[in-house]
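Lab meeting minutes (informal)
Scribe: AK
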Amino acid sequence: MTSVDPRRAAAAFCRDGASCPLSPLGCGNINDTFLVESAVGPFVLQRINCRVFPQPLRVINNFAKITGHLNGRRCQGDKEFCTALPVPTLAGVLFFLDAEGEYWRGQTYLAHATCHTLTNPGQALQIGRALASFHVLVADLEVQCLEDPLPDFHNLPRYLQEFDQLRARSQKGRDAACHYCFAAIDHDRQGATALEAAKDAGLLSIQAIHGDPKIDNFLFDDQGLARGMLDLDTVGAGIVHYDLGDCLRSCCNRAGESGADGLEVSFDMEICRALLAGYFSLPQPLPSTGQQAYIFEAILAITFELGVRFCTDHLRGNTYFKVRRDGDNLLRAVHQFRLVEDIMRKEDAIRRLVGQVAAGSYVS
């Protein structure tokens, strides 16, 4: 993290920023986020991690474009979809550049609740509907107007190439956990690339996607209804399968990425059923019928991809994902590859379930 006091950055957005209460917000793995309680109202202050987002202005500009588009759709009478909005600096620009060259941006604070694990299928149904709403709302957004915030973000072959290079020269990798991850990557790499091959072959449609629809990026109101999404940093051109796969990976493993005490890493079929039912409940379900066959490949690919990324970051010295201690990323990788194993065991059941839900044979 930068050595610049976040209050100095807050002062660029509000006149009492140097003295008003400021506290860490959320538990994201990438950026540093704070809640600023200024005299004119609370807002979110965030330092963009330049090691992860080497061109922060792309993130900042995309955020303004996507939120502007969503606001436009609301003005046209579409169902309200809640997301944070940009908060400009006192100078009227979208970011503050500190003395160390770090970019800070402001966003409106949304008091809705988030969750890290699901406790019932009803929450999954709500998340599925919210994700589908987002996909429908941005389906007509010209992807050419969005800059790529993370080139090759879901390029599994590139992640595998980097992993292979690091494994060959790393001094790590001699313990049982590393051997398990290395074996899992070698065993599953061919099957996990099927989604990318289908995309490259032009079989899957490209549109604007969220890019990181994990469970804690959904907003719930006090009635338990999912009202919108957070963290639009990774919005860009892609296939909705990336979002569906990542959302199902995140929601259907109740143990979470780091593993919860007493919970086994597994893929929860009831949560999967409910989430897909919510997703396909909208009048304009996406993806199209001809593309639904790749939903299983999406779940497998994104889960495997994240395991590769965690393992690779462990080998490179934890430069991407935040950790409390060395070994955290390796543990996360182990949990992802255990989830991959369970997903593969349930392949036939998942494929049948996707077909049933998409055909409307499941009623919430």
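Next up, CB showed the second protein from the same session:
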Amino acid sequence: MSLPPLSLYIHIPWCIKKCPYCDFNSHAVKNDTPETAYIDALLNDLTEDILRYSISRPISSIFIGGGTPSLFVPESFERLLSGIKQRIPLIPDIEITLEANPGTFESQKFAEFRALGINRLSIGIQSFNDGLLQKLGRVHSAKEALAAGDIAQRAGFTNFNLDLMFGLPDSNPEDSINDVKTAISLKPTHLSFYQLTLEPNTYFHKFPPKLPNDEIIFSTQKQAQHILAEQGYHHYEVSAYSQTNRQCQHNLNYWQFGDYLGIGAGAHGKITQALPQTINRTFKPKSPEQYLAHTHKNGGAELIKMAELPLEFVMNHLRLKQGFTVDTYQTRTGLTIDTLEPALSNCLKEGLLIYRNNHYYCSEQGWNFMDNILEKFIP
């Protein structure tokens, strides 16, 4: 049995301030963060997962997310990365991504991150407009956002992503178009451009701000996509755009239904042990205090039921413009293509999916109405 590629996600939950739209497991820093203890906990967590799931595959990508991981000092990441390499092999030229916010950028610090082998940044810009940044509760300014790209390049990062949001409170299309053009001027290899959504358990969900109407939001998205395409950024995933061969390898593995270990407070993972009957979803305690207190008893797992695998697979793979092949479906799930029926045929008949060059992928209509597709695959 051929197992999927294996990535590693590392969650660092602390940030300077909790943003009102954020539904990630993040916690505002109140005192000094327990960096030493947390690195110890991460490495113990990884050891436990390797033993629990009999992991022998090499790691194909690492993504350090949060929170704001760039709050940690380089020495902490040196110990973390060294400890990972002692426990599990890494593929040559592995992509290692660190999430960072402009308010935490320091030239020397980021040069040290690069020297450790961290070779990709994902920078949370959101907007280059001071007024909109204030409405979003961001702690950085437009000036700091502009400086971030320059600092990243001077620190030696030739591969970095900028996060942008559209459909922001009291914004207009010109704001988003200016943001996209400004981001392109910083020469990132990758852009994430996604719509603000009011997620449950956030301040914005409890106290909704005034957002542009759906028609304006859709029009803004289309204008921005046209500009990005003209400038050589390929739309390869729902909200991701990259220069040629610069897709985020870590996220590609997610959407292609690969495996990933998830360590850290609130981290999730997916581990295949046997197809199709033993594919685990893993989860770790969300509370940093609980995570630190139970280093060797962290988290749990639940099996993905075989009846749910078709939905799980298409829900991920159809986020990609390239879609999926029959061979990929069978290799990643252990199931035959007939287990996607009758939903697959119905989507083709209704024009939601297209089959071409051995790939199933979303039509323009299907891309805009993904929920209509997914509901057909619900067991």
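CB comment: The chain has 15 helices and 17 strands.
No objections, moving on.
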